[in-house]
Specification:
4-stranded antiparallel beta sheet; binds FE2/S2 (inorganic) cluster; 20% helix; alpha+beta; 2 domains; Rieske Iron-sulfur Protein
Length: 132
């Protein structure tokens, strides 16, 4: 017969192991795209008309095209470098991919458009939902 304190130790070990492993497992089990890193807010007036407001450290550009506002992830879809803004869109410094202002590929090697970032317009502000 097992002594009572041995059973308790086993239970504590199991609980500690579960507490340590669940956050790690969650990182792999939850799809990356669904994890929201945070939300930040910009003033609509701060986005230049027919231009972009770039948050290089967050790898996000908020773009106003007439009355349309959208945000793009500045991570190149080829191998993940951060693209630079150009007068006509974006250019990747690593292997030369070029994207237009909508994030569509103009020149490879990238073959996928820049990812859109979810935004929500609220009165005078734009909420930008970032993902990890
Ligand atoms: S990482 Fe951008 S073109 Fe290769």
């Amino acid at each position: 017969m097992e002594k009572p304190h041995k059973g308790r130790r086993k239970l504590i070990k199991t609980l500690v192991l579960a507490m340590v492993s669940l956050p790690v497992l969650g990182k792999f089990l939850i799809p990356r795209i669904q994890r929201k890193n945070g939300i930040f807010r910009v003033k609509k007036a701060d986005v230049p008309g027919n231009g972009a407001l770039v948050f290089r450290e967050k790898k996000i550009a908020v773009i106003k095209d007439g009355k349309n506002v959208y945000a793009l992830n500045l991570t190149c879809t080829h191998l993940g470098c951060t693209v630079n803004t150009t007068p006509k869109g974006f250019a990747c410094p690593c292997h030369g991919s070029v994207f237009n202002a909508l994030g569509e590929v103009v020149q490879g090697p990238a073959d996928r458009l820049l990812a859109r970032v979810a935004i929500e317009e609220q009165n005078d502000d734009i909420l930008i939902m970032t993902t990890s």
